[in-house]
Amino acid sequence: MIKLEIEVERSDLVVFYKFAYWQSPDKSGYRKKTRIQFGLGFALLPFAIFFTGAPFSASMGWNLLFFSSILFVLGYKLADKFAEARAEKGIQELFASGKIQYLVGAMSIELADDVIVWRTLNTETKIHRNGLEKLSQNQKHYFIFHTSMSGYVIPKRSFNSGEELAEFEKWWGVTREPRS
């Protein structure tokens, strides 16, 4: 069994929710679809303006196509910024409502072969390993999901030694393997 004492900051939760909402590898299809929709929305702007009654000339068709292409690329690129801003706004609303304040601060976590026990100042949660939806990570955090949008974040800065990190990495690898 691994026992960790961690400190989760507000910024860690922001990273967790942004990851869950937009950056997670299993959201790649959703990201692509959203980017294309956003790009198409931008690309159709010149056509909407044109069809509002502007006079038509022969060169205007090529200009529309050119500007639509540029706007599609712009919209495709801006989709990430808008999605992350929307996620950030949602997170800030959750903080303002007080619904997730208990997820910030000092916590302890016990990781066994079959059960994860997560303790905060006022709560204790036990989750069976088979109840985990996925495990993921980025450069600075580990994410333990028990649903597609909720779970726990473990900042990598929480590990006090290489030995502690190695033990966790071993648990992480075993837990990610399918069980029969």
Notes on the protein architecture:
- The protein has 2 domains: 2-14 and 101-176, Pleckstrin-homology domain (PH domain)/Phosphotyrosine-binding domain (PTB) (PH-domain like, Roll), CATH 2.30.29; 22-97, no CATH class.
- The chain is 49% helix and 21% strand.
- The protein contains 5 helices and 7 strands, in the order E-H-H-H-H-E-E-E-E-E-E-H.
- It starts with a strand and ends with a helix.
Quick recap:
It holds the Pfam family YcxB. With 180 residues, the chain is an alpha+beta fold.
Principal-axis shape: elongated
CATH topology of the largest domain: PH-domain like
Number of domains: 2
Biggest sheet architecture: 4 strands, antiparallel
- Which second-level CATH architecture of the largest domain applies? Roll
Radius of gyration: 23 Å
Share of helical residues: 40-55%
- Oligomeric state of the chains present here: single chain
CATH superfamily of the largest domain: Pleckstrin-homology domain (PH domain)/Phosphotyrosine-binding domain (PTB)
Poorly predicted ranges: none
Order of strands, main sheet, comes to 1-2-3-4
Beta-strand segment tally? 7
Taken in chain order, the helices and strands follow as EHHHHEEEEEEH
Mind telling me the CATH class of the largest domain?
Mainly Beta
Strand content: 15-25%
Helical element count?
Answer: 5
For the residues shown, what is the average pLDDT? 80
Tell me the structural class: alpha+beta
Q: State the end-to-end distance.
A: 21 Å
